[in-house]
Design goal:
Distance between the termini: 14 Å
Protein name: Glutamate racemase
Number of helices: 9
Helix content: 40-55%
Number of domains: 2
CATH topology of the largest domain: Rossmann fold
CATH class of the largest domain: Alpha Beta
Structural class: alpha/beta
CATH architecture of the largest domain: 3-Layer(aba) Sandwich
InterPro entries: Asp/Glu/hydantoin_racemase, Iso_Racemase_Enz_sf
Mean pLDDT: 93
Family: Belongs to the HyuE racemase family.
Strand order of the largest sheet: 2-1-3-4
Low-confidence stretches: none
Order of helices and strands: EHEHHEHEHEHEHHEEH
Strand content: 15-25%
GO molecular function: amino-acid racemase activity
Length: 218
């Protein structure tokens, strides 16, 4: 049986990715490894730290020891750590947002990126620019923090969080060719956005589709 290990930095990514895995790779055995201190430490420092990267390495090493056929990194905030770890982990590693970044750069040159925290926004923007460069594409990235959304969520006000985020996405859609949602948890809002003139991309489905393609190539 195919075994997929998913590294999470918080509980919010577990269910969306589980649903996509169940639909797209139904036969697989899934191991979820979750440590919410990773994201907390990245937010406190304002960037990915060597200590966080070291802990991610330990989790991926454990996933390899458990017989995982592939490892999915579920968090954009720590995605850059996997770039340096790939040479130390034999098991193939897929980043949840890499396929989304490639797709965004192919749709058009004006790319909007929305997040609620800068520690997710910044690495997502860097990934999009890097992927565009790899394909020889020139892009202009417009960044947006949904101001107040994260604080509302911390207060337990999910309704306000969602409303702020939706308003930010809709406003940005008028200025770009495609909108990228930097956090996995945002994907659930797409059906509530109504008809927009540009596509809105989220990472859970495209990330799991990338896992499926990687498994087929093994």
């Amino acid at each position: 049986m195919t075994t997929i290990a998913v590294i999470h930095t918080g509980p919010v990514t577990v269910l969306p990715i589980k649903e996509q895995l169940s639909e797209l790779i139904a036969h697989a055995r899934v191991i979820n490894i979750m440590d919410d201190s990773l994201l907390n430490d990245v937010r406190a420092a304002g960037h990915l730290t060597p200590e966080v990267a070291s802990r991610i390495y330990s989790y991926m090493s454990n996933a390899q020891a458990m017989g995982a056929d592939i490892i999915l990194n579920a968090c954009s905030s720590v995605g850059e750590a996997t770039d340096s770890l790939k040479e130390f982990i034999r098991t193939p590693i897929v980043k949840i947002d890499e396929s989304m970044a490639e797709e965004a750069s192919a749709i058009g040159p004006r790319i909007g990126v929305v997040a609620t925290v800068s520690t997710t926004l910044d690495p997502t923007v860097r990934l999009i620019r890097r992927k565009a460069a790899e394909f020889g594409r020139t892009v202009e990235v417009t960044e947006r923090i949904a101001e107040g959304a994260f604080e509302a969520l911390l207060r337990g006000d999910g309704v306000l969080h969602d409303e702020i985020l939706k308003q930010t996405i809709v406003a940005l859609a008028d200025q770009v060719d495609v909108v990228v949602l930097a956090q996995v948890s945002m994907a659930r809002l797409i059906p509530t956005l109504g008809k927009l003139r540009v596509p809105v991309l989220s990472s859970p489905r495209s990330g799991v589709e990338a896992v499926r393609r990687a498994l087929a190539a093994l």
